[in-house]
Amino acid sequence: MVYLSLGSEIYVDGIDTMAGRSAMIFRQPLPERVVELWQMLSKLTDQAKENLDSYLDLRMSGIHRLIWAELIKETGLNLLQKPGIVDVRAHEAVTWMRQNLDKNISLDDVASVVHVSPSHLRFLFMKSFGLSFRDLLISMRIRRARALLIGTQHTISEIATQVGYNNARHFSRAFKRAEGLSPSAYRDAGIQVTR
Questions:
Q1: CA dihedral sign of residues 33, 78, 137, 98
Q2: Alpha helices (runs of H) in the chain, residue ranges in sequence order
Q3: Ramachandran category for residue 3: left, alpha or beta (phi over 0 → left; psi -120 to 50 → alpha)
Q4: Are residues 98 and 140 located together in one domain of the fold?
Q5: Following DSSP, what letter does each residue of 99-134 receive, concatenated?
Q6: Predicted confidence (pLDDT) per residue in 84-143, tens digit
Q7: For the chain, what percent of residues have pLDDT higher than 90?
Q8: Torsion angle of alpha carbons 11, 13, 19, 22, nearest 10°?
Q9: What is the CATH classification number for the domain harbouring 116?
Q10: Does residue 29 fall inside a structural domain?
């Protein structure tokens, strides 16, 4: 599941659409194709921004938001419906987890960082994201691995370490279970698509 954030940062699997405003995170599933299009657009926009002055950069940001609004409209999502708002402590926990994905992360560690009990943090994750701690951690690791597989030339073993797996075989099994492809097959498929 992908979450939409309306705020000043990218949150768990979220998309930053209104930089500079106070953050609200909506638990709104987005079709995977919309997310892929958005990521591709973001990459192209970032590349174009390197050569723009501040006025054109500002115009690009506006165009970026207009395209995003059209993508949302095309999916039929109604952002005015009552959203599930993510608890601040759950957001803080996810931010810390994202920054420490290369480490061995336990529920107890994360709970102590956000000053709640492990059982309460488990409840907050389920309420905010509809996922258990374990499923959320695996999802975050697999997403980071997908980006590294397509965006870098790192070995599978290096990527496994960067996303918190101590051994490449365990990482490969977890990745295949989540994505239906081995990491190397995923990388090969991604390279063929981008050519």
A1: positive
A2: 32-49, 54-75, 88-99, 107-114, 118-129, 133-151, 156-162, 168-179, 183-194
A3: beta
A4: yes
A5: HTTTS---HHHHHHHHTS-HHHHHHHHHHHHSS-HH
A6: 567 889 989 999 999 999 999 999 999 999 999 999 999 999 888 888 999 999 999 999
A7: 38
A8: -40
A9: 1.10.10.60
A10: yes
- The per-residue pLDDT for 123 is 93
Tell me 165's DSSP state: -
Which residues, 6 or more positions from 1, have their beta carbon under 8 angstroms from its beta carbon? Answer: 13, 29, 129, 130, 131
Q: How far apart are CA 67 and CA 188, in angstroms?
A: 29
Does some domain include residue 121? yes
pLDDT, tens digit (0-9, with 9 covering 90-100), for 34-61: 667 767 777 776 666 666 666 666 666 6
Query: With contact defined as beta carbons under 8 Å apart, do 183 and 149 qualify?
Result: yes
Final residue before a domain boundary, out of 75, 103, 136 = 75
Q: Which domain covers residue 133, as residue numbers?
A: 88-194
Q: Using CB atoms within 10 Å of the CB of residue 133, give its burial: 0 to 12 exposed, 13 to 18 middle, 19+ buried.
A: buried
Cβ-based neighbours of 161, under 8 Å, separated by 6 or more: 102
